Amino acid sequence: MEQHSYNEFEVASKSVIKLVSKQFVExxxxxxxxxxxEQAYYAYRMDEKTQKALQEFQEKQASLQxxxxxxxxxxxxxxxxxxxxxxxxxxxxxxxxxKAQTELAEVSQKIGDMLSEAIGLDFGASCKxxxxxxx
Amino acid sequence: MTTTTVTISETMLEAxxxxxxxxxxxxxILGFKAAQAKLQKDNEALRLLKELSEIQQKARTQQSxxxxxxxxxxxxxxxxxxxxxxxTIQEYEKSRGKxxxxxxxxxxxxxxxxxxxxxxxxxRSSGCC
Lengths: 135, 129
Fold this sequence. Notes:
The complex is a heterodimer.
Chain A: H1 14-29, H2 32-46, H3 48-63, H4 65-69, H5 75-89, H6 92-119, H7 123-126
Chain B: H1 10-24, H2 27-41, H3 43-64, H4 70-85, H5 87-114, H6 118-122
Helix pairs in contact in B: 2-5, 3-4
């Protein structure tokens, strides 16, 4: 990839930035970490046993939501919920997926550091929109 | 916390560097850096920000104990007014806002192409669930 060097007063146009963003995405999707992440995600989504374990955990959690908010679930229900959560998180495909996600995040964090240093702002924090990520 | 050494390919480094340079030379980021440099040289603006930060901290401490003095509230409002009408600070805030919007726009484009929120992956404490 040919890289353009800017002088102190040169402004990069939006079209140039869009182009380098596109080239960035192409390079990113070719990293071994992204490929592994994609494969692990696909395997996780296709793994019926894991999806069933997730469904069971989510259904139990939803059925206890009101009691959980009031911190009023019984010890037995709490144990059962923990068992279902562990059952889901110990499935090989979710373990592989989580590992791949962590490795992809490590690459992204390094890149984020490079971007933040160049722009003088925290890239990740600046791009936070809205309040949460769970919605 | 475990730290691992991740290897990034030369191609990826080049692409990241090109993106970093492109962003740094964008109108929004150049404007922000110019306003930031101006703010750092403006002693009056820096004094106002320091005083405001100190009194806000004091007010927070007093608020938690339920005792904010009338004089501190008056000082806080006066400082907020001075900060609000200080041209250097306002220019800095405005340029920072523009830079943030610009970064969000670029991140959105990258994230749409990737199919995941790239900026979220770059944050060291990305989880909230």
